[in-house]
Amino acid sequence: MRTISGVAASKGIAIGKLCIRQNPAEMKNMPPAADANIEIQRLYAARTAAERKINKLYRQALHKFGAEDSLIFKSHIMLLEDHEFFDHIQSHILHDHMTAESAVYMTAQHFYQFFSEMEDEYMRARDTDIRDVARHLLRYLNPDYAEQLNGMREKGIVAVEELLPSEAVTFNRRKVLAFLSKSGSRYSHAAILLRNAGIPYVVGLEDSYQSLVQAETVVVDGFTGDVVLNPDTMALREYGEKQYEYFLHLHALHELRGCPSVTRDGYRIDIHANIGHVEDVQQVLDNDADGIGLLRTEFLYLGNNMDCSEEGQFQAYKKVLEKMQGKRVVIRTLDVSEEPEISQWRYGDRVNPAMGFRAIRFSLRRPDLFLTQLRAILRASVYGKAAVLFPVVTSEEEVIKAKALLQQARASLEAEGVPVADKIEIGIMIETPAAVILSDRLASMVDFFSIGTNDLTQYILATDRMNDSIASLYNPRHPAVLRMIDMTVANAKKHGIWTSICGESAADAELLRFYLAMGVEELSVAPSAVLELRRIVRQTTLGKHKDRIIQKYCNG
Q1: What does the CA dihedral 106, 110, 112, 117 come to, rounded to 10 degrees?
Q2: Active-site residue 502, yes or no?
């Protein structure tokens, strides 16, 4: 028996026989195409067949997962129709004399690289969608380069180097108990689909993946990321008991829908959800979140077929607000950098884009684009309870300019006779040390703070959270980080504004007492974490000595 570890991407415990999928054939040393016109014809035929297949997947997803999650495959169809993506392929055929399959492969690599280098982890996980669409094209051009999951004769656990969204829909739920993958992200579409389906999934096994060939039976722990190879009798008994306990746990969580998040001694905190797409709203509702604490808007700006016009944005925000039925929706303004290139928003070739020309800096430099987004938010504000959030603020001047443009957008709409909500809350993200130090001044200028703990932690500790070699240094519980959060919340309270904790540490059960003791009004987490966090809150007794709790955490 041996245990290897990866990243837990979907909760649950699974025990079963292991099935390892063989990798597709590598594409190398492909001969040049004999006739470019023939290759172009093959390409278009493959696109037609791929579109037919993806539409079938959409209908399957609609039946299995519902309307919201099935939209993933609509985005895949949009990518197939994307002019830049397809022109890239054709250019390789016409100018580089490549075969259709080589051109698809090279283009997929190019776009995969683009997404994989994005700062936002949610958007970075879209690189897998590129591979999925390319795999569909390759399947019809040359099946050797795009193998699917092999059929399974009995129930078991499937190991793949990389799991694609289409495979997360087409697998046999009666046979597949869990998935393992060498690479991947818990933010990928495949992981999202498996979480919604309740299928355990461990990603990022990396070098340990090779050890799977030695196993016949495995245990997958979707809570810890552990994978037990060839478990003995004692391990089988232990994990069997964990399976049953988790079943009882899920039933208990369901009973918490509609209950307030209040400690045993009466301290209340609202639990909101973070989402990155309109399609994610159903997860918010299913998990009974008190609202949306962060709606990322970058998805509206990525891809030729994405609609970042005022009307397109308005319709997206309106849909979210209507579905939330009066619960607060915090809409974060655009957090990208650099100039648009044929409607593609790209990070430039910078050493550290996280510290570059991005977020509010970019929006203020492009007031035309910023006003378009602000007008769309204001137009949608009459359909629910909207709030606007400015990211990566470092100065009072940025807030003054952003508020002035918001007022300009309001004035222009009112002059046109377009209805706008009388009151829309304005907030800023506290995610830089500069914003923390200035929080006493900034608090007098806005209605709320949203403390972005992910970026704040990496900036305070000078630790890139995406750099695996220093991952151990990235610590949201570091006393320096907690002291800065304490300072920010205290300054917010002095000025009578509310504070939200947004980021991975908002769902950290170990930090819950710290946030409660400070009097934080809101935690904003992934939709799947809402009910579990509510359970912990309701089982917590804060006590009278809140200052001692704060000092304990701040002193390490």
Answers
A1: 150
A2: yes
User: Three-class SS of residue 150?
Assistant: coil
Q: How far is CA 142 from the centre of its chain?
A: 33
Q: Which residues contact 313 (CB under 8 A, 6 or more apart)?
A: 297, 300, 307, 372, 373, 376, 377
Report the pLDDT averaged over residues 134-149. Answer: 76
CB 465 within 8 A of CB 518: no
Average pLDDT of the chain? 85
**pLDDT (mean) for 493-520:** 92
The DSSP annotation for 499-522 comes to EEEESGGGG-GGGHHHHHHHT--E
Strands 13-20 and 156-160: parallel
- Listed residue (222, 216, 229) closest to 250, CA to CA: 222
Chain centroid, CA 141 distance in Å: 32
State the amino acid at position 217 in one-letter form.
T
Catalytic residue among 189, 272, 277, 308: 189
Q: Which residue has the higher pLDDT, 5 or 174?
A: 5
pLDDT of residue 468 exceeding 70, the answer is: no
Give the span between the Cα atoms of 421 and 380, in whole angstroms: 9
Beta strand 385-390 with 328-332 is parallel
pLDDT tens for each residue of 269-283: 999 999 888 888 988
Distance CA 123, CA 291 (A): 22
User: How many Å apart are CA 6 and CA 205, to the nearest integer?
Assistant: 4
- Give the whole-angstrom CA distance, residue 336 versus residue 297: 10
Q: Is the per-residue pLDDT at 128 higher than 90?
A: no
Radius of gyration of the chain (CA): 24
Among the listed residues 92, 136, 308, 502, the single catalytic one is 502
- Please say whether the beta carbons of 98 and 32 come within 8 A: yes
Q: Between these two residues, 122 and 92, which has the higher pLDDT value?
A: 92
Residues 133-140 have a mean pLDDT of 87
Catalytic: 251?
no
Percent of the chain with pLDDT over 70: 86
**Buried-state track 179-196, b at ≥16 Cβ within 10 A, e below 16:** bbbbbbbbbbbbbbbbbb
Please state, in angstroms and rounded to a whole number, the distance separating the CA atoms of residues 371 and 406.
Answer: 7
Residue 82: pLDDT above 80?
no
- How many whole angstroms separate alpha carbon 161 and alpha carbon 291? 37
86 vs 104: CA distance, rounded Å: 9
Q: Which two tokens mark 285?
A: 């509702």
Residues counted in the chain: 556
pLDDT tens by residue, 175-210: 899 999 998 777 677 887 888 778 999 999 999 999
Taking the C-alpha atoms of residue 456 and residue 452, their distance in angstroms, rounded to an integer, is 6
Amino acid sitting at position 422: D
Secondary structure (3-state) at 12: coil
- Per the model's pLDDT, the better-predicted residue between 108 and 270 turns out to be 270
CB 217: neighbour CB atoms within 10 A? 15
